[in-house]
């Protein structure tokens, strides 16, 4: 049995995918004010939220349990609107050796709608650990919250 795996899901959005990408790439500290299941975030190490050497600490809820982890940005690909986050420490390291979250903003797919694709690449510490389906559901809910926030902001402006 392999300990490594990958989970992926796309969430359709109504907001401009570029705006969703910009929140993640340039306004990450605001996510805690927008996403219902994120209770707090703080800069743990470094001077800037969006540099690769900065480490943030997140507090969030998955399946009714309050958890914490550290996160750093591994890469930002502006052209493809893709960000790779590395999650580690605290509650992550209890279950996973490797945990990466890849978020991509997709303009108008074949069905004529925009989407955010969330992919989790992971390696479990043992075969007894379940795949991180709760984390994927958490990501989907955060995307929905950001989408709703951006739509409300657009209504206020218009």
Automatic annotation (TrEMBL):
<protein>
    <recommendedName>
        <fullName>Bet v I/Major latex protein domain-containing protein</fullName>
    </recommendedName>
</protein>
<comment type="similarity">
    <text>Belongs to the MLP family.</text>
</comment>
<dbReference type="InterPro" id="IPR023393">
    <property type="entry name" value="START-like_dom_sf"/>
</dbReference>
<dbReference type="GO" id="GO:0006952">
    <property type="term" value="P:defense response"/>
</dbReference>
<feature type="domain" description="Bet v I/Major latex protein">
    <location>
        <begin position="2"/>
        <end position="153"/>
    </location>
</feature>
<dbReference type="InterPro" id="IPR052006">
    <property type="entry name" value="MLP-like"/>
</dbReference>
<dbReference type="Pfam" id="PF00407">
    <property type="entry name" value="Bet_v_1"/>
</dbReference>
<dbReference type="InterPro" id="IPR000916">
    <property type="entry name" value="Bet_v_I/MLP"/>
</dbReference>
């Amino acid at each position: 049995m392999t300990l490594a795996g990958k989970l992926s899901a796309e969430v359709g959005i109504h907001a401009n995918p570029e705006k969703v990408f910009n929140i993640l790439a340039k306004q990450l500290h605001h996510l805690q004010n927008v996403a219902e299941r994120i209770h707090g975030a703080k800069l743990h190490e470094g001077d800037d939220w969006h540099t690769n050497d900065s480490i943030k600490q997140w507090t969030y809820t998955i399946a009714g349990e309050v958890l914490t982890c550290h996160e750093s940005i591994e890469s930002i690909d502006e052209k493809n609107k893709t960000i790779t986050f590395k999650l580690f420490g605290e509650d992550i390291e209890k279950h996973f050796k490797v945990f990466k979250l890849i978020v991509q903003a997709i303009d108008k797919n074949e069905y004529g709608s925009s989407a955010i694709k969330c992919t989790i690449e992971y390696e479990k510490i043992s075969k007894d650990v379940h795949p991180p389906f709760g984390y994927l559901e958490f990501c989907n809910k955060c995307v929905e919250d950001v989408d709703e926030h951006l739509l409300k902001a657009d209504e206020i402006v218009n």
